[in-house]
Amino acid sequence: MSTIAIMSRKGGVGKTTSTHALAIALNELGKTVLVVDFDSQGSITAATRASTDNGTIAHVLDKQKTLDDVCTKIKDGLFVCPADDELSTVETALVSATGREYFLTDALEDVKTDYILIDCAPGLGLLSVNGLVASQYAIIPTLPQFLDLRGLKSVLENIESLNSNKRLQANIDVLGVVLTQFDGRLNLHKEAEALLESEGISVLGKVAKSVRVAESAGLGLSILEHAPNHPISNEYRRIANVIVGR
Ligand SMILES: Nc1ncnc2c1ncn2[C@@H]1O[C@H](COP(=O)(O)OP(=O)(O)OP(=O)(O)O)[C@@H](O)[C@H]1O
Ligand SMILES: [Mg+2]
Q1: Ligand nearest to the CA of 217
Q2: What digits encode the pLDDT tens for the residues 105-133?
Q3: From ligand 1's centre to the CA of 17, what distance in Å?
Q4: What is the pLDDT of residues 66-97, one digit of tens each?
Q5: Closest CA to 220 of 13, 20, 7
Q6: How many angstroms separate the Cα of 236 from the Cα of each of 23, 137, 223, 233?
Q7: How far apart are the CA of 52 and the centre of ligand 1, in A?
Q8: Ligand 1 atom with the shortest distance to the CA of 182
Q9: Domain ranges within the chain, ordered by starting residue
Q10: CA-to-CA distance for 205 and 222, rounded, in angstroms?
Q11: Which atom of ligand 1 is nearest to the CA of 122?
Q12: Which fold has domain 2-245?
């Protein structure tokens, strides 16, 4: 079983879109997947049409419910643990709790799926730390432009500091960066890719920009389901194959 945090410091860079697409791509490869919505915006809950009627990740964190109680089965081998606004209330309560970095690790202890994908909220707050500490791997989507790449550096430093903190026992392997809304014809984007390479940061994938992606979430579908033969869908399938090969 592998747990992967999809995270970034900046908002709106394609974390949720990538989490959704990779969940479907891994499922297509015959893998069982649990997607954890770890963002009070509840974006992947909405995009997958997961129900919050039986509770959310907030209730699992404060031990009122189990994961089994709150998860929605989206299709065979694909489950979503939903989130809503209440997660921000729980985050506030967590700040003063003992073992505050391990609440998600504890919540995921008995999960039996092949993969757990954690769709993190933007930023480096306590929830993201929980997401990272619970994970063996991290994937960092970013837009291929200057200010976003700056944010990326602080994420990598943050992960290094978690890994080197003896008390936390974190061991997070950064699988790489996914460049989103990438246009290979733009010098700005080519330079961004070259900059990452020159700094030894691995580029796991390059996802083009398409209105088909924005459409798909509104339909309750990932891009792989909405446009199965689109190059973006194939790029996410390629990334899923890289993940499975690890
Ligand atoms: N490849 C793409 N082409 C076009 N639009 C995209 C692409 N990827 C994501 N988007 C759009 O960009 C917006 C932000 O994407 P998404 O919600 O996945 O980002 P996020 O990093 O999860 O955001 P947040 O930080 O708020 O959680 C959405 O409207 C989404 O549809
Ligand atoms: Mg998101």
Answers
A1: 1
A2: 999 999 999 999 999 999 999 999 999 99
A3: 6
A4: 999 999 999 999 999 999 999 999 999 999 99
A5: 20
A6: 10, 17, 9, 5
A7: 22
A8: 1
A9: 2-245
A10: 17
A11: 25
A12: Rossmann fold (3.40.50)
